Fold:
Amino acid sequence: MTKNLQGRIALALGVLVFALVGMLPLKEKINLGLDLQGGMHLLLKVDTSQLPEEAREDAPLKALEIIRNRIDEFGVKELSVYRQGTNEIVVQLPGVTDRERARELIGKTALLEFKLVEDNQDLYAKALEGQVPDGYELRDVDKEKILLGKNALLTGDTLVNAEVKFDQSRFNEPYVAIEFNAKGSGVFSEITGANVGKRLAIVLDGKVHSAPRINERIPSGKASITGRFTVEEASDLAIILRAGTLPAPIYIEEERTVGPLLGRDSINSGIRASIIGLILIFVFMVAYYLFAGMIASFAMLLNFVIILGTLGWIHTTLTLPGIAGMILTIGMAVDANVLIYERMREEMATGKHMRSVISFGYDKAYSAILDSNITTLIAAALLFQFGSGPIKGFGVTLTIGLIASMFTGIFVTRIIFELISTNKNFTKLPMLKLFPKTNIDFIGKRWIAYTLSIIVLLAGLGTFIMRGENMYGIDFTGGQIQEYSFSKPVSAEDVRKVIDGIGVKDATIQQFANKNQVLVKTALDEADKIADAFKSGFQDNTYELLRVEKVGPSVGKLLKKNALLALIWSLAGILIYVGIRFKNIAFASAGVMALFHDVFVGMGALAIAGGEMDLNIIAALLTIAGYSINDTIVIYDRIRENLKLYRKASMKEIVNMSVNQTLSRTVLTSFMTLLAVTSIFLFGGEVLRPFSFVLLAGMISGVYSTVYIASPLIISWHSRQQK
Structure:
């Protein structure tokens, strides 16, 4: 054993130890995303439009601190609160599914005011008749209308404590006891002393909670807020008051809430899809490549361990698209081995010694493997740059998986083969061969292929354009979706009747294959109204809210802009890289034309199937862009090689020869990945089904476009360059 081989073995073992340490214990190292464990993701906007210029810059920072303090006291573990841009705040609450309570806790301004109740009966009578005097406002408290002065005598700025207590005389009814600092106590003492016999209203965010009568001066600086609270309501109010008043109103621009039931289903679906994908690929590789397939399968399992270990070391959050990324890289992990093994098969056919077969097989496949992985990495990097939330998780997992697959597929398997080759009895490497040597005139059929492509693209993109705004999900148009799971099957018609009955006329209702689940899409935030309507409309059919997603129109425009930029930069990056690597703009241009073809086929298939464009679909399209050029690069690599070997052959003969020589690789590498994507489509659950459907359409198109679009276009470009 050479020192070089010993060093490589040590490195491989070191990476394995690194991965195992990072992976174990798994529960402590990797956090589950909100889409897997349930929880809330909120994008808040601090409205500074009414603030003076000097106070706007500090308002978001102060709001951030107050919100963090409120959530800390709420008792949320592993929360994430951070500023985004100039006046936006992102809040992530794992495990929190009581959306109404969380929204109240976070969004309340908590402006506490003490105002005198006007006892002049003449003024009160005029106000009841609709003639509210200047400087006053008519409010409700306990089914009573009271007239208040608009100016507050005291606010909550001087509040130092708020806690829940119980009134023994009212059957332990909870109330909030508050306490002022020295300055506030002095003001409160003066107010109560000067207005004995009058009523003092306690107003929070414009709502009068109580208006008790002042019986005597209160020098202690202590008061109480009553209002027939539940214990939970009183507790939340105390938290809000202790944390302080927000410096400006806050609006929820984006909300993504996932219930625990959907989270558990997502985990189960992800695990099931991963296991089935692994088994399918393992069985095929062992059945087709025999002993070499077992080595590739071992590398695939090691790839899985390295992904989990790396995710553990960086303490990332694993999302459902992240699991899809892992499954996808499992399929892509064996692509490198397929390229190497098919090269080794060619070298064995020339009668070379096994050591030479191994050496030539890896060396000749290396450039194609490197180029194809880098193009996919370009797309993955842009997913991370322009994506948000779970899509970033997909980008991270895909990036780690691609790097790990190159390490295991090229580095580790070569070590194993070189160790085995030291055995003198290792003289053959048997493999099945389903693909005979072909000599098909693919290029001669290019005009038929062009016509077919035009028909498919026109049908798909025509449907896309005809559907207009209906083609886009709420990620890009704004709006809200709510998904419900009923205990008994429910019809879309019955759901429509209930929703129409509360005046929500613009709702779109979608029913899944599981008749118990219903998705409702509305233009406005109607989740609470619809939930209340379901309680009365389906009294004998209990339901659970699986998820709520809300996107404001301004956020939708930004997401659409980022998605478009991601696609443009991805295609531009791949064009530049391929052009540099092959030192020929004809190769790059033809390859990118094929990419456009595959991306548009994916979009058209989605439109015809009635799906919607959302962030997950953008992730799928970027993955198609990065992956579909892989097979094209394999053919390009062989064309470049054959141009040196057959200098007298025409370009058409070279391209045809190269496509035939690499046909088995094109089919097998795509088949491996399609096994993984099919597993996601069939077993990954409803959330990932549109994502995997678009991937399937784009990747099948990728096999076709590699042979019939990218390869023939090289000839057209080459002919123009010759003129």
User: Anything to note?
Assistant: The radius of gyration is 33 Å. The CA atoms of residues 174 and 229 lie 6 Å apart. The longest helix spans residues 689-722. The chain has four domains: 39-104, 112-245, 260-426+444-467+556-722, 479-551.
